[in-house]
Structure formats: structure tokens, C-alpha cells
């Protein structure tokens, strides 16, 4: 029988008697188990210690051994960590701060109990509170070798980078690294001699790296991410560099441009704490982490390269572009034009001649923090390409040695819209319009070349295999189309190393092209 949450067993006939009656408690019935099905034991989750403190790069073990009951499973949820199972959870953190910890225990009868606490991670004794010219990279990040900092420095020294990737070996940027290193007083010899043992000092990195690292640290960027960026921070100017493009670019561009438009949804300061280990070897596990977005298409049967998405009218992308909602959650994106989940602005251009035309979406990071761009999804409305040459395109960024370094492959779809699917605001455009979505998938290069830096540009170009000068033969028509691209664009940077899988699944962004 069940009474007041417990299960009781009768010794003999006791119909109508209550278990808790003093006369019956010990004579007629006995308690078998509580109503939770956990064999009579009170199920309690206990984290010990309740409010532990540890230091950066030091492991701490959280124990659930004081939990009570007939427990079958222990599940830990800790900020920035994968779920951990077991009585003990040992974790290490690379950044100071407060981290939420939750323990859930499950009893044999299926009931659960939870305990929560906050783990405080303090700066380690070897981590300086203030960076100076005398601070070494080992002082700054004791785990610098695990982050491949020496290799990142030495593999791409200014003046020693030849060729490129993806057929872009002959290209260059307007302000080469060798010139920047000279202007910013970077000590190349000190990098060669001292990066390996960690004795390389910030002062040897010239005039730029220390100020940028200090700014990023004060804004909350993890030290491991800053350290991975140092080989580019030492070459990062204070002024905004003029953007360059693949091919002839602006030399054959329309006079009409769209924007610049700030993100109209006014996003808050955007933090990416989980920058992956920037492996430089070709070990399988290291490459798998560094190039996790790139390899997804190789390992998932959903992906193809057959451009079979031109009439995929069931895609959530259509509703997204008509209603300004997030394709995965359905939540409003906010704003009334260009939107993003991080602070930035957009400008748009059309480049080309004859049959080779490109939509150029130019973005500027307007925040005080850098963004790594791997896994970024961008969508917009643009002139139809009819799937002809979507494989032709590029990613442009002045903060890399040559255009081909840091190059991404792309997951890309195009959906040519029927007349009734075109947003009312653009119904007057007398040309076929398509919905586009692109996800950037980098490989073979350091994260510092996959990064949008404060007050600097990055861009993508997507080919449109149509003679656009004939379709848009007046200044008014040209202005209308570049404005539409800018106003309908959205940028979704990756968070928590999630590859933006929810967006990819919602809009069926399963088409990989190379460059």
C-alpha cells in the first residue's frame, strides 16, 4: 500500500488501518521503501566542496561522494565543459572567472536530485596581473606549447611565407607582413631564438602586440585565445586597412554601393571563450579539432556538391528572410535591416565584367574584441545565380600573409524565389532574386588568419554567372540591388564551438564547395 509518499507492506489483514497510527506502526505493517522507488533511502545530491576555488591551468576535482541514496548515475554540467559522468569530475580552466557547476544524481527508481555551486577560478601565481614588455609568452600562458604558439610564430614569419593555398599562391595583400614588421619594430631574430622555450618577451613583438593583448584581456578574451593571435597582433595596425578583393575587384566594380550599415539589432559585446587548440601538426586528433567545421562535410552523408537546392522552398531560410526571424528558433532577429549576433557593420558591392560577376559582402568588426570566423553562417537576398558558378568565390582578410592563407571552403545554398516568395519590400525589383546562405569552413591554417580584428575588414565574394550590367542597366536599379543585399544580410558567428549546426539543419545547408 502507498501512504504519504511511502510504500508499506502488511503482515496480515489491515484494511482501513493507517500505517502511521501508533497502534499499527510496529504490529501490522512495515515500511518497504519511499515512493520514489529508491529503496527507502533519501536521494540527495551533494557537491563537496560546496564553493571550491582553483587557479587557471590547475586541475580541480569535484566529488559527489557525500551524495546519499541508492544512486545509479552521477552527471556533472560545468560551464564550458562537456557533460561528465561519474562520482568525481576533474576539470581544468584556462581563464579566470566564476563557473556554474550542477550535479544531478539518479536513483534506482528513476528519481533525481540536484545540487549546484559556483567554482571560482583565480589567476595563477605565474600569471602576471599586468602585462609589460618584460612579460614572456610562458609567463602569459604556461600552456603555450599545448596551444602550438611556437609553431604558429615560426611557420609564418614575416618575409618567409611563400605561396598560398587553393590556387592563390601568386596573390598578395596591399600591406605585406614584412613591411608591417619593419614599421612596428618586430624582432624576427628574437622570435626565432626564444619562441620555442617560451622566453620570447612582449617587447620583442614590437609596438603593437602588448597594447592589443592588454585591451583584449581587459575586455575578457581568454589568454589562450590572445596567445594564439599574437603572431598577427604584432602586425595589426591601429588604423583600418583598405580592403582588397580577389581578381580585379573594385577596378571593375559598380559605382553604386550599399551601406555601410551597422547591425540594426544592436548586439551586445560578443565573447568567444572556446577557441580551439590551434594544432600545427597533421596528427589526426589535432587536425580533427582545428578543422572540425571543414571535416564535417567529409564525414556526414547529408552533404553533397550537386547544387540541388534551387527550389528547396521548404527551407526555413525563406521564412527567415521574409519575417526577420532566426531559422532554428523562430525568435525575432530584431532591427529593421542588417542584423548580426556580434557588433559589426556591412557594406555591399558588385564587381565584374562580361559573364564574371561577384556579390561582395564586406564586413567591419566594430567591437573591441576579435571574432574567429570558423563556422560563421551568412544569409541574404541577392541577384539570382541559378546555381551556375557558386563554387567561384573567396574570403578576403588583410590580416594574413597572402590571400590563400586562412582560406575557407564554403557550405553554400541558393534558392531562386518565386514571385510570391519575394519580400514585399523588394517586389519592385524586375529581376529574379535568390536567397543565399553560406557557412565558412576553414582548414590548414592558424586561427589568427580566420579572425575578424577590431576596426578591420573581412569579406566574402560569391560569383553570379549572369551579365548583371544588362539586368541592372540604370544607376537606380544598381543601387536598389546592392541596398537589398546589405539590408537583408545576417551574420551568425559560431558560439561554444557548436559549428552553428542548428542553423545548418534548419535551412539544410548541406552543400560544400571548394575554392
TrEMBL record:
According to the UniProt record, one GO cellular component term is:
extracellular region
What GO molecular-function term can you cite, just one?
Answer: carbohydrate binding
Q: Where does the UniProt annotation place the signal sequence?
A: none
PKD domain ranges (all copies): 53-126
GO biological process terms on file:
carbohydrate metabolic process
Report any Pfam family annotated for this entry: PKD_4
Judging by the UniProt lineage, the source's domain of life is Archaea
Q: Which InterPro entries match?
A: CBM_sf_5/12, Ig-like_fold, PKD/Chitinase_dom, PKD_dom, PKD_dom_sf
Q: Where is this region: Disordered?
A: 242-268
Q: What is this protein called?
A: Chitin-binding protein
Amino acid at each position: 500500500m502507498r501512504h504519504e509518499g511511502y510504500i508499506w507492506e502488511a503482515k496480515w489483514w489491515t484494511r482501513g488501518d493507517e500505517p502511521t497510527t501508533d497502534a499499527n506502526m510496529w504490529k501490522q505493517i512495515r515500511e518497504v521503501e519511499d515512493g520514489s522507488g529508491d529503496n527507502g533511502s533519501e536521494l540527495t545530491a551533494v557537491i563537496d566542496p560546496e564553493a571550491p576555488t582553483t587557479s587557471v591551468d590547475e586541475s580541480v576535482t569535484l566529488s559527489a561522494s557525500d551524495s546519499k541514496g541508492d544512486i545509479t548515475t552521477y552527471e556533472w554540467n560545468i560551464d564550458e565543459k562537456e557533460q561528465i559522468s561519474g562520482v568525481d569530475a576533474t576539470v581544468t580552466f584556462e581563464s579566470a572567472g566564476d563557473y556554474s557547476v550542477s550535479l544531478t544524481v539518479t536513483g534506482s527508481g528513476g528519481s533525481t536530485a540536484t545540487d549546484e555551486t559556483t567554482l571560482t577560478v583565480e589567476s595563477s601565481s605565474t600569471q602576471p596581473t599586468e602585462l609589460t614588455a618584460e612579460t614572456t609568452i610562458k609567463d602569459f600562458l604556461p600552456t603555450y606549447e599545448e596551444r602550438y604558439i611556437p609553431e604558429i610564430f615560426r611557420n609564418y614569419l614575416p618575409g618567409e611565407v611563400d605561396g598560398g593555398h587553393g590556387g592563390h599562391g601568386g596573390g598578395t595583400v596591399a600591406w605585406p607582413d614584412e613591411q608591417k614588421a619593419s614599421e612596428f619594430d618586430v624582432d624576427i631574430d628574437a622570435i626565432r631564438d626564444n619562441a620555442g622555450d617560451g622566453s620570447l618577451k612582449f617587447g620583442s613583438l614590437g609596438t603593437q602586440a602588448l597594447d592589443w593583448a592588454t585591451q583584449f584581456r581587459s575586455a575578457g578574451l581568454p589568454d589562450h585565445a590572445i596567445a594564439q593571435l599574437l603572431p598577427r597582433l604584432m602586425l595589426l595596425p591601429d588604423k583600418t586597412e583598405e580592403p582588397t578583393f580577389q581578381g580585379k575587384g573594385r577596378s571593375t566594380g559598380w559605382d553604386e554601393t550599399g551601406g555601410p550599415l551597422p547591425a540594426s539589432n544592436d548586439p551586445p559585446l560578443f565573447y568567444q571563450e572556446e577557441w580551439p587548440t590551434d594544432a600545427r601538426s597533421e596528427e589526426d586528433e589535432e587536425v580533427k579539432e582545428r578543422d572540425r567545421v571543414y571535416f564535417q562535410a567529409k564525414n556526414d552523408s547529408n552533404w553533397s556538391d550537386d547544387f540541388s537546392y534551387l527550389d528547396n522552398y521548404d527551407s526555413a531560410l525563406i521564412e527567415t528572410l521574409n519575417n526577420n526571424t532566426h531559422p532554428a528558433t523562430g525568435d525575432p532577429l530584431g532591427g529593421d535591416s542588417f542584423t548580426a549576433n556580434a557588433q559589426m557593420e556591412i557594406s555591399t558591392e558588385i564587381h565584374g565584367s562580361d559573364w564574371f560577376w561577384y556579390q561582395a559582402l564586406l564586413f567591419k568588426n566594430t567591437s573591441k574584441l576579435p571574432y574567429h570566423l570558423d563556422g560563421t553562417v551568412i544569409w541574404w537576398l541577392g541577384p539570382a545565380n541559378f546555381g551556375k558558378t557558386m563554387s567561384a568565390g573567396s574570403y578576403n582578410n588583410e590580416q594574413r600573409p597572402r590571400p590563400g592563407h586562412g582560406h575557407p571552403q564554403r557550405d553554400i545554398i541558393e534558392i531562386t524565389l518565386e514571385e510570391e516568395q519575394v519580400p514585399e519590400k523588394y517586389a519592385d525589383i524586375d529581376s529574379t532574386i535568390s536567397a543565399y546562405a553560406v557557412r565558412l569552413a576553414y582548414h590548414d591554417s592558424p586561427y589568427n588568419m580566420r579572425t575578424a580584428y577590431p576596426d578591420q575588414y573581412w569579406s566574402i565574394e560569391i560569383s553570379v554567372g549572369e551579365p548583371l550590367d544588362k539586368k541592372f542597366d540604370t544607376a537606380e536599379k544598381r543601387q536598389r540591388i546592392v541596398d537589398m543585399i546589405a539590408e537583408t544580410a545576417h551574420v551568425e558567428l559560431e558560439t561554444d564551438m557548436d559549428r552553428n549546426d542548428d542553423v545548418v539543419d534548419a535551412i539544410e545547408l548541406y552543400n560544400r564547395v571548394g575554392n
